[in-house]
From TrEMBL:
ABC transporter domain: residues covered: 2-227
GO process annotations (BP): cell division
InterPro entries: AAA+_ATPase, ABC_transporter-like_ATP-bd, ABC_transporter-like_CS, ABC_transpr_LolD-like, Cell_div_FtsE, P-loop_NTPase
Protein name: Cell division ATP-binding protein FtsE
Keywords recorded for this protein, A-Z: ATP-binding, Cell cycle, Cell division, Cell membrane, Membrane, Nucleotide-binding
Gene: ftsE
Membrane topology (UniProt): Peripheral membrane protein
Described purpose of this protein according to its UniProt entry: Part of the ABC transporter FtsEX involved in cellular division.
Species the sequence originates in: Candidatus Yanofskybacteria bacterium RIFCSPLOWO2_01_FULL_43_22
MF GO annotations: ATP binding; ATP hydrolysis activity; transmembrane transporter activity
Gene3D superfamilies recorded: P-loop containing nucleotide triphosphate hydrolases (3.40.50.300)
Length: 227
């Protein structure tokens, strides 16, 4: 499903962010992408949404090299992928319903479908009782669950979670990870980028460790984040 073939990226100042990355991720996998800050985790995720392109190698999704996509095809790619960030990226002037609905409205989805789909997704993430709440009225854990609801609204095949527990205490971090695992059990591929050892080791799934832009370890089920 996802394959990176000998991928390297170089920033404008000639700093190499990724070096010769080779990685395959199958449909329905849960992969924890771990390593210290600056290891290249976020850069790898940005390649998958084609926010950036590699200077060397290929990034392939469903047998298509992402470099061959036209500008008009990139939004279609991104609707296959839901992205969750550490800082939530919620719209402060919109309530929970409106934050999720906005992701559909910008794609031209009709109002009836929005009214039908948004409550279903809010129910999945446990926020049915927060429909009219604004971000400032939500806890950190609720904000992240709302961000996950927004990522789910297009029924993506892949969820990319970039340090989603970074601003949360351990209780809320556990709840968010449990939600990601629930989503994964429904068949969605999940790639979790984090440096939180406790979170990764509690998941007990495949662990890919990065250091200085390289993959240095790739462990299957029951993998551990070790140094």
């Amino acid at each position: 499903m996802i394959e990176l073939k000998n991928v390297s990226t170089i920033y404008d100042d000639s700093l190499m962010a990724l070096r010769g990355i080779n990685l395959k991720i199958g449909q329905g996998e849960f992969v924890s992408l771990v390593g210290p800050s600056g290891a290249g985790k976020s850069t790898l995720l940005r390649l998958l949404t084609r926010e950036i392109s590699p200077q060397e190698g290929e990034v392939v999704l469903d047998s298509v090299d992402l470099a061959t996509l036209s500008s008009g095809e990139v939004p279609v790619l991104r609707r296959k992928i839901g992205t969750v960030y550490q800082d939530f990226k919620l719209l402060s002037n919109k309530n929970a319903f409106e934050n999720v609905a906005f992701a559909l409205e910008v794609c031209g989805v009709d109002e009836d479908q929005v009214k039908d789909d948004v409550p279903k997704v809010l129910n999945i993430v446990g926020l049915s009782d927060k429909v009219n709440s604004f971000p400032h009225q939500l806890s950190g854990g609720e904000k992240q669950r709302l961000a996950i609801a927004r990522a789910l609204i297009h029924r993506p095949r892949i969820i990319l979670a970039d340090e989603p527990t970074g601003n949360l205490d351990m209780v809320n971090a556990h709840d968010v990870v449990e939600l990601l695992m629930k989503i994964n059990k429904l068949g969605t591929t999940v790639i979790l980028a984090t440096h939180n050892r406790e979170v990764v080791n509690a998941i007990g799934k495949r662990v890919v460790t990065m250091e200085k832009g390289k993959i240095v370890r790739d462990q299957g089920d029951n993998g551990k984040y070790v140094i």
